[in-house]
């Protein structure tokens, strides 16, 4: 084993030795938003909080746009390796802001011609879909912590995240049918895949019944339930820190391949990871990680991606 490691280091002497010893010193670049609070509580771990507590974190135009812009920026930010997403105030979110929904619809309904009106509705929904999909398109894993209510648009949002935790007092409601809408920003597509049961997903989407934290756990909507929000956030940040300590090349390729594979055949997913790893297997991260494992020298430092 020693000679094997020696030969690897000999082949890439300066790079591996210097990066193994390097300590992290970069400053995080944190953009703030009107409706989102963004912080960096641990190295490479970004915390995004829905921040309209006096409006129960309802989705108004600003929040929709901020979500899209924020997750695009985090996708592009090399210092961000993992995101924890939660909400400030009493509830995670009460869903779409019903006042802004109605005023937006009234404005479009003032257009007389059906084709032109339809085009405006189409573009509105398409835009909102893009903002939710930005969470999935962000190659950094997103851990969502839900407390109290997670309604309508909130369920669309949480099902686009990678990992979901909630508090004992949390509840979920696919409420769209109750306000006369067919869910159109991702829940109908993602919920059945997340929970793995078309029957349960359809029941929830047709009836708008509330799902408690314990039921959410039993159907696989969340993977863990915590006594309160502090405990949930603390553990989410710990898990995020573990993920952030791994090779970002490996973690981000894993998310890309999981997302790609969820709508495709096994053969297509396998081909996709072959193509990604044809490039990523050339990464210095593999050498660093393999040496660290072989020498039991602890987790190495990886460069940002
Ligand atoms: C193209 C569209 C794509 C997206 C579609 C998305 C659809 C959806 O999200 S459907 C879901 C819509 N949301 C709701 O129907 C939630 C309605 N609210 C409630 O059920 C309760 O308010 C809630 C359980 C969330 C909280 O109950 P709590 O007792 O804690 O508070 P309240 O006293 O009820 O509410 C406090 C004030 O907030 C106002 N409010 C609550 N929800 C909304 C909302 N979604 N939009 C706008 N305003 C909301 C509520 O009216 C109270 O206002 P005020 O009386 O002025 O204090």
What does this structure look like?
The longest helix is centred in the middle third of the chain and has 24 residues. The chain has a single domain, classed as 2-enoyl-CoA Hydratase, Chain A, domain 1 (Alpha-Beta Complex). It has 305 residues and is α/β, with parallel strands linked by helices. The strands form two sheets. The chain has a six-stranded mixed beta sheet with strand order 1-2-3-4-6-9, with helices on both faces. It has a three-stranded mixed beta sheet with strand order 5-7-8. The protein starts with a helix and ends in a 10-residue tail after the last helix. About 6% of the residues have low confidence. 53% of the residues lie in helices and 13% in strands. It binds ligand LH2PNOKW. Ligand LH2PNOKW binds next to α4, α5 and β5.
Give a concise summary.
This protein is of the alpha/beta class.
Key phrases:
53% helix; globular; 3-stranded mixed sheet; 6-stranded mixed sheet; 305 residues; alpha/beta; 2-enoyl-CoA Hydratase, Chain A, domain 1; binds ligand LH2PNOKW
Largest sheet: 6 strands, mixed
Radius of gyration: 22 Å
Low-pLDDT segments: 8-26
Strand line-up in the sheet with most strands: 1-2-3-4-6-9
CATH superfamily (homologous) name: 2-enoyl-CoA Hydratase, Chain A, domain 1
Q: What structural class is derived from the secondary structure elements? A: alpha/beta
Task: Tell me what the CATH architecture is.
Answer: Alpha-Beta Complex
**Number of self-contained structural domains:** 1
Helical fraction equals 40-55%
According to CATH, the fold-level topology is 2-enoyl-CoA Hydratase, Chain A, domain 1
Overall strand count = 9
Average pLDDT figure: 92
Bound molecules: ligand LH2PNOKW
Instruction: Identify the overall geometry.
Output: globular
Helical region count? 13
Order of helices and strands: HHEEHEHHEEHEEHHEHEHHHH
What is the CATH C level class, in words?
Answer: Alpha Beta
Q: Note the beta-strand portion.
A: 5-15%
Through-space gap between termini: 30 Å
